[in-house]
Amino acid sequence: MKDEGAGVRTVALFESDYSFGADVICLDGGTSGLGLLSYIKDYTHIVIVDALRAQGPPGSVVRVPKEKLQSAPALSRTSAHQIGLKDLLAIARFEGLDPEISVIGVIPKDMSAGMELTPEVQIALPLATEAIREELERFGFKAARKAA
């Protein structure tokens, strides 16, 4: 799907444009949903990057901190992995897991079939990578833009 690819494309751009320590990994969770529970068990801080339906124009970058994930009224179902996010977090809490989690989202314009991102979302990718860097720093991790 067109703008559904915003998350995976943002993470790929982040990996190519930023350097970070071995304590940071980038993972394409795809549509794993509850299958991602094993990663919650292994990590204390998680940044989820995805296409995210929210209030605002297409291509806007949205940060949703952990404390707003359960109650974020502007969020609606966009993809298979978003559908399971609240369930995933509830199960993690039930199992005694409580990592720091935030979501960096890019508001999609077109979720129809196709491989290319819309121009609005494509332009937003560098802003989303910078949002990832900022979130990692909030969590106490270092990431820096690679020299050109």
Structural account:
It is a single chain. Helix 1 crosses helix 6. Residues 73-78 have low confidence and may be disordered. This protein has helices at residues 6-17, 37-42, 66-69, 80-83, 85-94, 119-138; strands at residues 18-20, 45-51, 61-65, 100-106, 143-145. The chain has six helices and five strands. It has a single domain, classed as HybD-like (Rossmann fold, 3-Layer(aba) Sandwich), CATH 3.40.50.1450.
Content of β-strand: 15-25%
> What is the number of strand segments?
5
Estimated structural class = alpha+beta
Provide mean pLDDT, rounded: 87
Order of helices and strands: HEHEEHHHEHE
**What is the CA–CA distance across the termini?**
31 Å
Q: So how many helices?
A: 6
CATH class: Alpha Beta
CATH architecture label: 3-Layer(aba) Sandwich
Helical amount among residues, as a percent range? 25-40%
Relevant CATH superfamily: HybD-like
| Major β-sheet strand ordering | 2-4-3
Please outline the major beta sheet.
Answer: 3 strands, mixed
CATH third-tier fold name: Rossmann fold
Low-confidence stretches: 73-78
Cα shape: globular
Radius of gyration: 15 Å
Domains (count): 1
